[in-house]
């Protein structure tokens, strides 16, 4: 079977819900959206689907006709649901590196990553990166990447991410905001096929500072960055009061929103589409998506894991790959 390259899926933490949602995704998608899992076939057995070993990514589309395609990546220990095994930590990390290599070589159209458990990787293999995204940036040789959360109704980008709220004002610099907006604008063109991106930028303070009465970041930092980038031709508006940016009529006026901190971005998208949101890493030389949830050790092995976000991540990866080809 010929066609576009399949999507590479890294298994993530095999003691989490990753193997289950991969199996459920194949049950729903079959060969309609070919993907293959980089992992140990033993971790994907007993899930109600047949793991089909493949020798190379190009075999995934044919294998998907009869089962879940798996590119063998041996792990040293079994996977016990809910209980990460330190001996498997290095193999988790190596599977990610292998996925990056395959997508960089063009053998896979995109990379979709199943959730890892950072503490398990640190304890078992001395993992020194804050998370998945930073490791991918390291492998790609990229200095700065941007996290986008996306669903059909909203694309939103937090400028600062996993830091305490008290540290946000100091972390929010003009350089960081400029880079975040530029990377977002470039990705909307290249990865989402938006010819003239419209980006709405939030303020930091309530009511976007209310003319300085509730803070001066909007006046002294955010508005000057917006003005400078608008002078370069970028389609920006703001700074907007975040409490009026995310209702349906407001969302119709932009292609993506840039928020100032984690919760300002994630609360609206998780309210709009809790199960179907997708985490997209912008600024990498390849496409990377992931489900917007973690390892969920508390339900691993119970059969209750919901594959909706993972399926959405696969579908978005395919759409982004098609947009890149068209561009």
TrEMBL record:
Binding site for a divalent metal cation: 162, 207, 262
Amino acids binding substrate: 132-133, 270, 279, 288
Molecular-function GO term, any one: cobalt ion binding
Functional pathway: Cofactor biosynthesis; pyridoxine 5'-phosphate biosynthesis; pyridoxine 5'-phosphate from D-erythrose 4-phosphate: step 4/5
UniProt subcellular location: Cytoplasm
GO terms (BP aspect): pyridoxal phosphate biosynthetic process; pyridoxine biosynthetic process
Reactions catalysed, as given in the entry: 4-(phosphooxy)-L-threonine + NAD(+) = 3-amino-2-oxopropyl phosphate + CO2 + NADH
EC numbers, comma separated: 1.1.1.262
Cofactor(s) the record lists: Zn(2+); Mg(2+); Co(2+)
UniProt key word Metal-binding: yes
Annotated Pfam families: PdxA
GO CC term, one of those recorded: cytoplasm
Record note on cofactor: Binds 1 divalent metal cation per subunit. Can use ions such as Zn(2+), Mg(2+) or Co(2+).
Keywords, alphabetical: Cobalt, Cytoplasm, Magnesium, Metal-binding, NAD, NADP, Oxidoreductase, Pyridoxine biosynthesis, Zinc
Top EC group: oxidoreductase
InterPro entries tied to this protein: PdxA (IPR037510), PdxA_fam (IPR005255)
Biological function: Catalyzes the NAD(P)-dependent oxidation of 4-(phosphooxy)-L-threonine (HTP) into 2-amino-3-oxo-4-(phosphooxy)butyric acid which spontaneously decarboxylates to form 3-amino-2-oxopropyl phosphate (AHAP).
Assembly: Homodimer.
Similarity section: Belongs to the PdxA family.
Note: The active site is located at the dimer interface.
Protein's UniProt name: 4-hydroxythreonine-4-phosphate dehydrogenase
């Amino acid at each position: 079977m010929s066609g576009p390259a399949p999507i590479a899926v890294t298994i993530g933490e095999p003691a989490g819900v990753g193997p289950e949602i991969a199996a459920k995704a194949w049950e729903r998608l079959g060969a309609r959206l070919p993907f293959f899992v980089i992992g140990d076939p033993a971790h994907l057995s007993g899930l109600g689907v047949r793991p089909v070993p493949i020798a190379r990514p190009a075999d995934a589309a044919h294998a998907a006709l009869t089962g879940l395609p798996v590119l063998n990546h041996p792990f040293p220990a079994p996977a016990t649901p809910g209980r990460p095994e330190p001996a498997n930590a290095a193999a988790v990390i190596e599977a990610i590196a292998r996925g990056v290599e395959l997508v960089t070589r063009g053998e896979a159209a995109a990379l979709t990553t199943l959730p890892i458990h950072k503490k398990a990787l640190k304890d078992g293999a001395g993992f020194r990166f804050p998370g998945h995204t930073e490791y991918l940036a390291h492998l790609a040789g990229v200095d700065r990447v941007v996290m986008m959360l996306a669903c059909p109704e909203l694309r939103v980008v937090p400028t600062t991410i996993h830091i305490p709220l008290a540290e946000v004002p100091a972390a929010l610099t003009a350089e960081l905001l400029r880079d975040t907006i530029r990377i977002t604008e470039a990705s909307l063109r290249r990865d989402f096929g938006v010819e003239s991106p419209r980006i709405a930028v939030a303020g930091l303070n309530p009511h976007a500072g209310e003319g300085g009465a509730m803070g001066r970041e909007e006046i002294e930092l955010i508005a000057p960055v917006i003005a400078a980038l608008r002078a370069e031709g970028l389609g920006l508006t703001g700074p907007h009061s975040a409490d009026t940016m995310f209702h349906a009529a407001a969302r119709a006026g932009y292609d993506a929103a840039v928020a100032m901190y984690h919760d300002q971005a994630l609360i609206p998208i998780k309210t709009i589409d809790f199960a179907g949101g997708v985490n997209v890493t912008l600024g990498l030389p390849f496409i990377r998506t992931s489900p917007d949830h973690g390892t969920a050790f508390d339900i691993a092995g119970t059969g209750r894991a919901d594959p909706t976000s993972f399926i959405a991540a696969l579908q978005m990866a395919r759409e982004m790959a098609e947009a890149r080809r068209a561009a």
